[in-house]
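hi got a favour to ask and not much time before my train. below you get a single protein, a line of residues and a line of whole numbers that encode the local backbone shape. could you go over both lines and see whether the tokens make sense for that sequence. a few lines back from you is plenty, here it is:
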Amino acid sequence: WDGWTCTGQVITWYVAGDFNQWNTSANKLDCSINLDANKTYAFKIYGNGIWLGNDGTMTRQYSEGWIMDNAADCHITTDFAGSYQFSFDINTGKLTVAYPEQCFLKGSFNDWEETHSILNGSVTVTLAAGTHTFKIYRYDSHGTPYWCGNTGTMTRENCSGWTMSSEVNDDCKITADFDGDYTFTYDRSTGKLSVTYPTAYKV
């Protein structure tokens, strides 16, 4: 065995660990594996009778890559549930893990906490009548968080098609004309945000 090849032939590598009952043929690299939130999993990579690891614990902040060069168990700590992409470079011996992207609606209405995920496109928030500040808060696959905002104030009349930009430092504002459920819809690919206001009733 020389580096990450065997007698001049490229080895087929698999990832095995707690998440697949250490099955050495279930997850061929490169692959995506669904992991639960807030857990630490032990794992290694395996190929042609050879086990490779790294004796550290990978987190989102260190997901850019590890050299797999010993037999120790690796560990990975998850912060969110989702699909984690494992990739192995046979030329460098480096394993990388792309964490699932996360996206939240944070504002004065939820104390700027990560309680309202908008990753799947929309989220409904109960607002009291008045003006509220908010932004979109995103994590990329390497764990870098960033804010997306817009300098305007959203009202019932202009609640469609706002562009949320990471270059805007100011908070957005939304004016709720009465108490009710407001549905925020966000397209991560275009950065467009719209809000569906509750039906207005006149007496």
Observations:
- The chain has a mean pLDDT of 89.
